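INFO batch 0412 | record 1 of 1 | parsing
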Amino acid sequence: MVAQLGGEEALSTSAREHSAFLRARGVRSASDLLRLAFLYGPGEHSLRVSAALAAERELADVSDVALLNRLAGAASWMQALCAEAFGRLSLGDAPLPRRSRIQIVDGSRIEGPGDTAWRLHLCYDPVQGRMTDAELTPLTRGERLDRLAVRDGEIRLADRAFPQPDGIKNTLDGGADVLVRLTWNSLKLTDETGRGLDWLALFDKAKAQDGLDQSAELHKARGRFPPVRLRLVIRPKPPEAAAHALKTARRAHCKGQHRRIDPRTLAAAEHLVLITSLSDPDISGAQFAALYRLRWQVELCFKRLKSILRIDRLRARDEGLVKTWVHAHLLLALLIDDIHCEVDAFPP
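INFO prediction complete | emitting tokens
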């Protein structure tokens, strides 16, 4: 593992740069400090047990309080190690053609003791079968398409939490394309003449024609925002999926105690609604729907992080300790990704 991260000397240099390891006091080396982070994080041991195990194995001679301070002080270093690991990811020797790299973005809540809660944002490449970027933020920083670095030529897939005008525009300005699911009231959309969309008519048309594919313009409710020309795709859901979505929509309506459910909400529940910047006429609405279905792979990535590495069992309250704990899990996950990619294995 130390070799995968560049070796002992590289770890010592980066630890000094981030003030994580300035002198050998209780902990002999940067790699030993990294081992302590893994022992506390993915190892799922408390600070007291981690300190006892480290002493038993002659890894370090520190108290639980001293270990807390050492690990909390290593937060920026652990974050930097993850950033370096992401930076080492290669797309191969040959350059990929434009719009051939799919990036799925999503976020998940990680809760700790008391009211401690954070949000982990991920970028996932379904072709490589691995994470390509991540960021840990407080819950006050919501999910956005451009939360993680946008790369020229990629296609960003996201669910209904991500259709925001600024996030879409910034992603397009970064040279990427978007394919995002939305609801009828997620965005302010108009037709080519500037009139608002008649969603009920669109849903009826999509049902009659087994799908609808037309241009639309994205606007922002307030402030300066030049209209963005996009492509609206509406696909009827299979009968069973439509019936389940209708039942879910009615249940949510009952919980909200609204007097009357909007008919557009019921009609939307029976359809998959997508917005995209991909204008190639050779790509059909059915192909967009098939491409969007790749999004479930990021959900599996979160499931592996939570059910196998147990990244959702946060033990810490201290901000520095939280960041070390989470990034120790991410770093371990990245090392595992490296191994399974080297042997050409399939992800679980």
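INFO post-check: DSSP finds twelve helices and nine strands in the chain.
INFO record closed
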